[in-house]
Amino acid sequence: MADARITLHPDFRRGAVDRRLFGSFVEHLGRAVYTGIYEPGHEQADEHGFRRDVAGLIHELGVPMVRYPGGNFVSNYVWEDAVGPVEDRKPFLDLAWRTVEPNLVGTDEFLQWAEREGIEPMMAVNLGTRGVDAAAALVEYCNGEAGTRWADLRIANGREKPYGVKLWCLGNEMDGPWQIGHKDAHEYGKLAAEAGKAMKLVDPSIELVVCGSSSMQMDTFGAWERTVLSYTYDLVDHISMHAYYEEHDGDRASFLASGTAMDRFIDRVVASADAVGAERRSDKKITISFDEWNVWYLETRFPGESNLPIQRDAPRIIEDVYSALDAVVVGDLMVTLLNHADRVPVAALAQLVNVIAPIMTEPGGEAWRQPTFHPFATTARLARGTALDVRVDAPSYESKRHGAAPTVTAAATVDDDGSLGLFLTNRSDQVVEVDLAHVGASLSLTEGHRMVADHEAAAHGPEHAAKVADACWSTVELTSTVLEATEGTTTVRLAPESWTAFAGTLARA
For this structure, is 173 an active site residue? Predict the structure, then answer.
């Protein structure tokens, strides 16, 4: 008998996979912007100063959307100071990350970079130190037609055509005491409602993301969502979620169960949102923008914002280096997101370059892939069409931090042409054999890729990162991995502590 059983059929559907689920995040933090995506004078810089080698890796990663400019940074950001001639802009002290911001990249530079690279922008407005006027003005600057104050300023700054930004965040983590302009749920809910109302009066076509609680561990969690949505339910489209995961004290079992914690978090936010909708007798469904998620060694490696010295010149902040174990967890977190595709249309891996990122750069030097790059890129490439309602029957194990967790997780997608993406995690430290049950459907696996957990971090630049990847990331040899294929059942073998992706076809028999 196999150790686990996974049932899948093309008729059992969960929801469409929105391409924005594979979004990412660029904040004015550390080297995410300067010497990250932007480095004039670099041999790979384009005529606008943006690095072509980094853009190439972003396309390979499969990112269709990028959130900007923050993050904590946005809550003390005056966007008007970062438009117009660069030579007229003044540097300022960013209070969130205690860094002198040179103001060389602002709204126009970012949006034009995104446009050139075919990336959808997700813009955030400052609801920390600012409010309704500045938020509505930014929408007008980005999306307004000629003949109004802020649209005409954009035109004067050299951009005649509106940018047409559709997705907007109403601030960032406003329940966090670390946030500049931190507010309680009633203060924020009222402000978000008024700002959002004004923004939609400028452009009724935009989508709005209201801030959820900063994490499931916040004392405000749950009550915050209910209160904020009581003010904004009829106005907004999405509520944000943020979550980071790390290994504590060598507890691999709990770390590998991080996707179980993410799954519970999503279920609880959905329940809170639906409770507000039910109370309002509304047929509208608020969906999730999971616009910050990743492995981040926040508690064990980061000293905290208040302990950072004031720095200049794009300091190296939060440049976590990742291992294959981290990459397995990232792949498993993507399994969780796909399994909630019906309620999570938007997500952003935080962040894109250098700061807890899949892509690293060296100033004046190379750009390279961290181990976490590979499962993300592979999922973004293979997960197309519709997420299936996959049923997993597998033993559970008890983790110290997250309680009972299944040893095997799975997600699957099917496109209109029958193309299958199948994503499996083996959280156990043993080889696992899995029966893929597809009664009434034909299944063929044609391609596979596997990340096997290892603790060695890609800490010594591009050559070492490639060495770590070569040791842990590989093409699956199907003849030895697919053990048996009969009518209605295909059996596959999963390596211990691994994440595996298969491509193939799945169609009604």
Answer: yes
